[in-house]
Amino acid sequence: MKLIAGLGNPGAEYENTRHNAGFCAVNFLLKKYGIGDKGRAYGAVFVTGMVNKVEVAFIKPMKYMNLSGGPIRDAMDSLEIAPKDLLVIHDDIDIELGRALYKVSGGHAGHNGLRSIMGEIKSRDFHRIRLGVNRPDEGVSVTDHVLDRFSDEEREVFLKSLSKCAEFVENRFLAEELINE
C-alpha cells in the first residue's frame, strides 16, 4: 500500500488558499480516480482505493499545517507504511505558479508541514510533489501570501499543475510499485 498526503489547513477560512495546494491536489486525484472523499480516520480525511492496480490511501490531516505530521504518522504506523511509500503534496513559494516538481528525500526548506512530518516519522526519505504558488510580492509577508486565496487568473494557472501532479503519481510514485510486481 502507498500513502498520498495532501497538506493544508482545515476550515472554510483556508479553502482555496495557496497553503492548501496539497488539499486541492488530493481532491483532484480522488475525483480523477473515482474515489470518494467521505472517510475519516487518524484525525484526517482518509480514504483508500485502487489506482493503476496499486492500493493507495489518501490523507488530508485535519490539523493545522504545523501539526500535520501526527495524523500522517498514525496512518503510517497503523497501515505499516514505510517512508519510501509516502508521497506528500504541498505548496512551494520557490516554484513558479502552475509548475509542479517531483522530489525524493531532502530537507523541509522552511515548510512547517514538512518539518512536522519529518519530526513525527523520523525520516526525510519520502516522495514529494511541490506545487508552485510563487513568492509574495514585495512588502507582503510569506504568511499573508500563502494564507491568501488565488485570484481567478492565478487559480486557472494553478489548476494546470494538478494534471502534472497526477502524471507524477502515475508515472513516478506508483510506477515503482508496478515494476516490482
From TrEMBL:
One of its GO terms (molecular function) is peptidyl-tRNA hydrolase activity. Keywords: Hydrolase, RNA-binding, tRNA-binding. Its EC number is 3.1.1.29. Pfam families: Pept_tRNA_hydro. PROSITE patterns: PEPT_TRNA_HYDROL_1, PEPT_TRNA_HYDROL_2. Belongs to the PTH family. NCBIfam families: pth. This is peptidyl-tRNA hydrolase. It comes from hydrothermal vent metagenome. The lineage of its organism: unclassified sequences, metagenomes, ecological metagenomes.
